[in-house]
Amino acid sequence: MSEILLFLVLGLGVGAVYAALTLGVVLTYQGTGMINFAAAAMAAVPMYVYEELQQGRLTLPVPWLPSFDVGDTPTWLAVAIAVAVAGLLGALTELAVSRPLRKAPPLAKVVAAVGILLTLQAVVGLKYGTVPLLRSVSLPQGAVEMAGVNVAKDRLWLVGIAVVLSVGLALWFRKSRMGLAIQASAENERAAGFARLSPTVTGLVTWTVSSMFTALILVLAGPATGTLSPSTMPLLVVPALAGALVARLSSLTVGLVGALTLGVVQSILQYLSQTKDWWPEWAKQGLTNVVPFLVIVVALFVLGRAIPTRGDDVRSSLPAVLVPRNRPHMVALWSAVGLAALALTSGTYRFGVITSLAVSLIALSLVLLTGLLGQISLAQAAFAGVAGIVLSKLGDSVPFPLSLFIAAALAAVAGVFVGIPALRIRGAQLAVVTLAAALTLQDFVLANPKIVSATANLIPDPVLFGWNLSVRGGQDIARLPFGVMVLVIVVLASICVGNLMRSGTGRTMLAIRSNERAAAAIGINVPRVKLAAFAASSFLAGLGGGLIGYSRGQLSADSFGVFIGLSFLAVAYLSGITSVSGAALAGVSASLGIVYVFMDRNLHLGSYYMLITGISLILTVLFNPIGIAGKTRSDYEKARARLAPRKSPAKPMAQAVESDSSPVMVDTPRQIGDVSLSARGVTVRYGGVEAVSDVDIEVRAGEIVGLIGPNGAGKTSFVDALTGFTRSSGEVDLAGDRLDQQPAHERARRGLVRTWQAGELFEDLTVGDNVRVANETGNEALGMLRDTVRPTTPASAPVERALALMSLTDVADRKPSELPLGRQKAVGMARALAMEPQVLLLDEPAAGLDSTESLAFGDQLRRIAATGVGCLLIDHDMHLVMSVCDRVYVIEFGKQIAAGTPEAVRTDPLVLKSYLGNQSFETTEEADDAPVGKEEVGS
Amino acid sequence: MRTSKLAGGFALATLLAVSTACGSTDSGSETDSSASASQKAALTGGTAADDSKTPVTIGFHNLEGGAISLADVRLGFEAGVKYINQQLGGIDGHPLKTINCKTDGTPEASVNCANQFVEQKAVLAVQGADFGADAMLPVLKSAGVAELGNFPLTPGMNSAVGDAYFMQGSAQEGYAANLVQLQKLGASKVAVVLVDNPASHDTYRTVIEPAATKLKLTTKVFYVPAQSDWTVQSATVLAWGPDAISTYVAAEGLAAVPAFRSAGFSGYITAGANTEIIPQLDPSVLQKVLFSAPYYLPEFANPPAKVKKDLDVFEAYTSNMPKKGSVTQRQTGFYTALMAGQLLRDVGAKTSPVTAQVVHSGLRTWKGEREPFRLNGWDCSAATWPGTTACGFGNVYATPGKDRVLEPLPDQPVDMSAVLP
Predict the structure, then answer these.
(1) Chain B: nearest CA to A613, how far in angstroms?
(2) Which residue in chain A is spatially nearest to B6 when comparing CA positions?
(3) In this complex, is the C-beta atom of A13 within 8 Å of any C-beta atom belonging to chain B?
(4) Which residues in chain A (464-523) have CB-CB distances under 8 A to chain B?
(5) Is B264 within 8 Å of chain A by CB?
(6) Peptide bond before residue A401 is cis, with ω within 30 degrees of 0
(7) Under an 8 A CB cutoff, do A226 and B2 touch?
């Protein structure tokens, strides 16, 4: 028991180190929206400055600046200087990187943080050397007896200091004016800006304060941080990130407790695993690095979607996806270029070409997962490593290419395992999970002696029907047949990915990337698509890992480590993470790729290679976020556009409707049929608040039913409940089919379809594809397989009908953002109609429309209902509601207060009192003759 | 590249001779110009290589520019090649030429080096220190190029029998000798502290445990992850109650030794070849801390006369190098160059011209009387530990005296015949 106590106290010391980083990460996230993956790398700088001062030298982290002999420096002064350097570094990071990226998407921020990490790692190596350094002790030494156990005094001091400083920081965060401003920015940056809380000031303060806070504790921690080394120190951020996720990236107090607990758990597990015979041998390797990953997984399952996404004022979107066109001659041309590159080179250069091709598959996996789907993964190298292990284990027992396929398939399984916990989050938080997973795979799997041999993990040469495809033979270090084999695999994989990108699967992925909620609303099974994408991308990474393994002749786990994974993301982003050509370019720029070989043989960048990579990454994020391939394509498209005739501006909706002569626009008389939608006793609670209380509703086929009420009445919550976007109780039947236990996408697929108040269009897709994607849902995994070989299918009849009905045919190839608001609303309607709904729930479709557009919309709504679709219309435009609806429900404070025909409702005393007041409404027919204008109530 | 993913602990501990603290590779401009008379004499009197003859090309790969950078190994190697060409007549009159290839510890960089060596027709690949070196083996093996080095840092190189040759004792010998030495000093319950990687797990199972059984020692292994808090680690180890501790934890030794002492442990601790932690630690901490080295280092007290002469040559050829740098790293490079030169002269004397195939086959029977910096000979025809690539043997154990000068223990090198498999 006393030993457990000892390790508990010692674990608190480790936890104090994690807490310093955790709180820094949380504070930075709150202030700027950036998850600082470089937190530990940044903290290493002041630690080196401090250790140098202890040796009588002032050595600042500037590669070409000499050291200054300063003689003996008092400890307090050395600490102060180190902390000041940390503050300066934090401020510089804010000014140079974080501030320009304030409105950038999470991917850009993650990549920038990786760039900072790589840059600082290189700077520290160049300036302070790469040899691990013993930390000096600044806190009182000796031992204190506690419950019969001698505990190191410096650890007790460290824990005390960490707790006091953390509590102080938390109080400052909770109570001070600046702390409140930071919280306000985190809640809603744009709103905070309106309240004159400058995000630039809060950003500068949080970076500076968090850097100084972390540095102060880590400098004082001394040996508790372990030795100081540029190769291992940056990875201390992983447990800190686990603590930050536990703290929901928002609570400093929970972060402190979480980090301390993590340290204790690690310490006790370390003790038990090393000293107890019952601990299984296979579970000893890399145990301490597994703990943060497990904590993250558990935290995600417990907290789930409670981990908030910061209210960033994100105005720039992800780099546009460059969907490759189906041009066989271009495929043939690029294949010929690859073949020529192989045939015309030899030796190290041909090996460089081969490596480039193999790595391009790993980059292609990032194009699919990150570029196309928007899921940030830092674990692709680890998946490639899994395939390498499998290949070495299979040996000669399975013939090529089956062995390669099996290896890649098992990498796909690993990808799905990592993807499962990642389903509950997205954005930068997903990057945290995949980073922890990569570290776990690296230490617990790729380095596990029960799995990987210490001496040799040979991978047999590939042989196909007796044809020797080995990479080398005698003095020939890169045989052409091997190169051709790799080229064939890469070309096939690229064609498959290109097919996916322009197919229904590609549109589905882009829809998810644009807006997960809206994607679910059109019946896309978002978790299944994500898992399928994780599997497919890991399969691609596995293919790349397998080919790398064949080219080496053996598995080297170091080829697939965490930093290698980060460098893959770096080159993929630099080259263009949203295009197949970007993946090819990433392969060219990769380590041991053709550019690397050329530079190694001719330029001798040596020590500065890593520094150049890191800085290039940051500069790319800042100035060219679409990467080299994207920029090239974009410039090409601009040049083409200059030569092509200009597009005419999109017409407003009303004009389009008036001029439409489509046969489907015939005003068919409506027939109201049986009950399609029946909801009984629907109740929605948010904590202690009952937003919707026991509401019943019915909508019949072909009927237009209105749902009105003042702002905050619970209308949107009710629609969310019906469509499965919020937890609720009560029954929801659609033509006798109980839906209340079904997920949102399933309700949509069965015909209960909604539109959104804010449009929620997929900005990455054209108008036509926005509508088309809604008609391509279901069988995502099988569909993905089919789309790799047969991507081009004509748009279905419902899609064509929906585009025509909403008068969008003329703008089908435009992006939604290019259209006026009225036509954007029409796109949302068309998207819903393409699903051939039984019942359509329209959430404020007329909001923002002028009266002409509103009238046109009313006409369209009648035509939609005439096709037999039941419509539930929520709107504040009373002219619209009263003129088109057959019946109207009125709710107030979540409770139904009236129901009946429009005439009955607008004369209902309770409705008049609570909502309508003394207003009169004309029907549309009457209003057609009335002066232009509309009444809005409750807006 | 991560140190925890590298070779076995002994290999790492040995690497410390070339990598730790004062092994800073910051190249200042200050140089050591105070060569002694004997050192100056060492610079003259030999036979220079004939520059008009075709050079004999070898490849040299070494960590430089990555997460761990050991530039002084290369500097020492280049000094050794210079000595061979200026004083030893090159390789039977042919100048010795080096393809210098810098690695960063990743397999990719090492494969790149191997490719270059094969492409440029190197007759031998020589390793300074390279953690990614295992990845070179398929390339070198396919082309019939042998690997020569000082010490096998990586498990693949340690076991690539017939394709790689290392002049010092094997990693296995190092582990076993540690136990033998500790037993001689009275230990009976030894904690073995290893870096947490596959090679360490393998080594404990196949080498240390069997050796301990033969010696009737009780041992228990403790695996240490990278970036550890050594207070936690030392407490874990001491909870078992050992009377001696055998550490193979590379640079972490700098933190490990004081941590064990702070936690109250006063028994023997072996710290491998990591002699460069000595100036950084308090003498009280260093009591009963054992260091081992394959040959005499400049800081050893009273080297034998022949060794002293070798050290003079070494110091003469490295005296113009920046003061701020690792002498031990340079000695490693210098030693390796000299052994490579010796090999090429020996095989060239039998078969000319010297080709990769000639060197590869010649290595199988190569043996000699005395290596530089020590009195031992070598024999590559039979590994000194079965199944390894070791041509040499013998580690000298020493402990710092009051003035921190290393004093060899009695009966060195350790006789480990009792634990041979």
Answers:
(1) 13
(2) A558
(3) yes
(4) 472-475, 477-478
(5) yes
(6) yes
(7) no
- What span, in angstroms and rounded, lies between the C-alpha atoms of A117 and B121? 39
CA distance readout (Å), B281 to A221, B275, B396: 19, 11, 21
- Omega before residue A46 within 30° of 0, cis: no
Distance CA A226, CA A221 (A): 9
ipTM exceeds 0.85, yes or no: no
- Residue B134 Cα, gap to closest chain A Cα (Å): 8
The sign of the torsion formed by the CA atoms of B205, B211, B213, B219 equals: negative
Mutate to test the interface with A, among B15, B236, B286 (most CBs of A within 10 A): B236
- Nearest by CB: B231 against A223, A227, A563: A223
Q: Are B230 and A282 a contacting pair, CB within 8 Å?
A: no
Give whole-number Cα distances, A711 to A705, A708, A789, A892, A914, in Å: 19, 9, 50, 9, 11
pTM comes to 0.81
Dihedral angle over CA of B140, B141, B144, B149, nearest 10: 60
Q: Which residue of A has its CA nearest to B159?
A: A455
pLDDT tens, position by position, A472-514: 988 898 999 999 999 999 999 999 999 999 888 899 999 988 8
Query: What secondary structure letter does DSSP report for A646?
Result: P
**Contact yes or no for B39/B315 (Cβ under 8 A):** yes
Q: What are B121-133's pLDDT values in tens digits?
A: 999 999 998 988 9
> Strands of A895-900's sheet, edge to edge?
A752-754, A839-843, A870-874, A704-708, A887-892, A895-900
Interface with A, mutate which of B73, B115, B140 (most A CBs under 10 A): B115
Q: Please, which residues have CB within 8 angstroms of residue A295's CB and are 6 or more apart in sequence?
A: A242, A243, A245, A246, A258, A262, A265
How far is the C-alpha of A701 from the C-alpha of A671, rounded, in Å?
Answer: 8
For residue B324, is pLDDT > 80? Answer: no
The mean-pLDDT minimum among A149-153, A260-264, A892-896 falls in A149-153
Closest to B20 measured CA to CA, from B154, B132, B129, B163: B129
Q: How far apart are CA A602 and CA A597, in angstroms?
A: 8
Would you call A592 and B108 a contact, using CB atoms and an 8 Å cutoff? yes
Buried b (16+ CB within 10 A) or exposed e, A547-581: bbbbbbbbbbbbbbbbbbbbbbbbbbbbbbbbbbb
**Long-range pairs for A464-467: beta carbons < 8 A, 24 or more residues apart:** A464/A400, A464/A401
Q: A742, A692, A699, A750: which is closest to A716 by C-alpha? A: A692
DSSP-based three-state secondary structure for A99: coil
Give me the residues of B, 303-322, that contact A with CB < 8 A.
none
Nearest CA in chain A to B108: A592
| Greater model confidence, A493 or B16 | A493
Q: Which residues in chain B have their CB less than 8 angstroms from residue A6's CB? A: 235, 239
> Is A411 within 8 Å of A539 (Cβ atoms)?
yes
**Which residues in chain B touch residue A125, judged by CB atoms under 8 angstroms apart?**
66-67, 69
**A461/chain B closest Cα distance in angstroms:** 11
Share of chain A above pLDDT 70, in %: 89
Nearest-Cα residue of chain B relative to residue A10: B232
| Alpha-carbon span A184 to A197, nearest angstrom | 8
Which position has the higher pLDDT, A573 or A92? Answer: A92
Closest chain A residue to B115, measured at CA: A348
Bridge-based pairing of strands B396-400 and B289-293 is antiparallel
Q: Are A545 and A407 in contact (CB under 8 A)?
A: yes
User: Chain A to chain B, count of Cβ pairs less than 8 Å apart?
Assistant: 248
CA distance B71 to chain A (A): 11
Residues from chain B that touch A2, judged by Cβ atoms under 8 A, are none
Q: φ and ψ at A734, to 5 degrees? A: -120, 105
